[in-house]
Amino acid sequence: MSAAAEDVSRFLQANRGSARFRVPSTALQYDALLRKGLSLGVADAAATKLGIPRERLARLIRISPSTLERRFKEKVDLTGAEADALYRIIGVLGVAQRVLVNDANVRSWMSRPQPGLGDRAPLDLLDNAAGTEAVTLLLEQIYHGIVP
């Protein structure tokens, strides 16, 4: 399994809340999980780890805040593009937890402008694949002692 998938697995294992599902161990199992749907408990855990309200999380996964709230009221899992976007975000969170060690460090680092990201806050880049990749790359560079 890739390092990114291992980071996602660690995050899911620790933060799946009341949702009981087998944490995938292969790319095909992750594909099946995303097609079935990511639980709202995972979405809430991601928002908590990032220190952001659900409204901001909704924007990061590219749905309206009212749609996300409706999903919570109706207890409907996130599927399709929403699940894929949340998967990318929890992948970054998994790397951030590995690199920055604790939740307070993760929240602080993710919300502050970073020189290695053109003085943009990592949170501001998590709404698309390229931005997510840039944040992950910077975290990996920090982990390996490479400071841009």
UniProtKB/TrEMBL annotation:
Residues 32-90 form the Antitoxin Xre-like helix-turn-helix domain. Transmembrane segments: none annotated. Residues 96-145 form the Antitoxin Xre/MbcA/ParS-like toxin-binding domain. It comes from the Bacteria. Coiled coil: none annotated. InterPro entries: Antitox_Xre, Xre-like_HTH, Xre/MbcA/ParS-like_toxin-bd. Pfam families: Xre-like-HTH (PF20432), Xre_MbcA_ParS_C (PF09722). This is DUF2384 domain-containing protein.
